[in-house]
Amino acid sequence: MNRLMNENIFPEEYFRRADESPDGNFYLAPRFVAHIDPETIEALTRFYREFVPLKADVLDLMSSWISHLPEDQALGRVAGLGMNQEELAGNPRLTEYLVHDLNHDPELPYTPGSFDRVLISVSIQYLVNPVQVLRSVRSIMRPAGQIAIAMSHRCFPTKAIAAFQALSSKERVELVSAFLFEAGFEEIRFVDQSPAMGDPLWILVGTAPSESNA
Ligand SMILES: C[S@@+](CC[C@H](N)C(=O)[O-])C[C@H]1O[C@@H](n2cnc3c(N)ncnc32)[C@H](O)[C@@H]1O
How much is the pTM? Predict the structure, then answer.
């Protein structure tokens, strides 16, 4: 596994995992479960209604059977990329899907300039090369497109990178903000959408360079 990108910028030990076996084994069986509370899902869906413009082409990265997008929001292409074929096939929001292990190959199999919005929901902690993946995300976005990385406090502990188990929530937000910065995103901002009851919801938004800055 190529960790060169991380080694240069962040401590190597941040990206170790208790279970270093290929991710395909862990995600072999589908999990038709919610990874955040219903109130938190509602808050994320509310956020997406504002964040995703009508008719936008959207990539739901590290997707499963649920994308949290508003059911009644008219969108263009909604591509899902994740690890379990059955989960992705059961996601009613997706217009297409791919099974692709980003820890094996961080390059995204889409043509440059394909998407207006990219979503990563409660999954960034599973990437061992997050900066490389986010650089690839940037390359397949349209100029001034935006990414939203939603985080909470639950995880599969054996598959989450060590940094997400050792750092405080504030430090994790700062770390993901640094991932976005290193990947070349601009106007990085933090939005706390945590509901009064339920799991917290911390979102980082980044903007791909506009045509003149790209
Ligand atoms: C906790 S689930 C979150 C699923 C969904 N995004 C949600 O909000 O409910 C973690 C997701 O990350 C995806 N994932 C984990 N490791 C991955 C990898 N190496 N490459 C691509 N996707 C991965 C899995 O397929 C799984 O759907």
Answer: 0.95
Give the pLDDT of residue 7.
Answer: 52
What 3-state class would DSSP assign to 12?
A: helix
Ligand 1 atom having least distance to the Cα of 120: 6
Domains parsed from the chain with CATH numbers: 4-207 (3.40.50.150)
Q: Which residue's alpha carbon is at the smallest distance from atom 14 of ligand 1?
A: 62
Phi then psi dihedrals of residue 136, to 5 deg: -65, -40
DSSP assigned state of 97: E
Alpha carbon separation from 181 to 4, 55, 148, 161, 189 (Å, rounded): 17, 28, 13, 19, 11
Ligand 1 atom with the shortest distance to the CA of 155: 1
Centre of ligand 1 to C-alpha 189, Å, is 23
Please give the pLDDT value at position 1.
43
CB neighbours (10 Å) of residue 189? 11
Torsion sign over Cα 36, 39, 40, 46:
positive
- Report residues of the chain scoring pLDDT below 70: 1-8, 212-214
Q: What is the pLDDT of residue 32?
A: 85
Give the pLDDT confidence score for residue 2 in this predicted structure.
45
Q: What is the 3-state secondary structure (H, E, C) of 99-120?
A: ECCCCCCCCCCCCCCCEEEEEE
C-alpha 36 to ligand 1 mean position (Å): 13
Ligand 1 proximal residues by C-beta, below 6 Å? 23, 27, 35, 62-64, 66, 82-84, 101-103, 121-123, 126
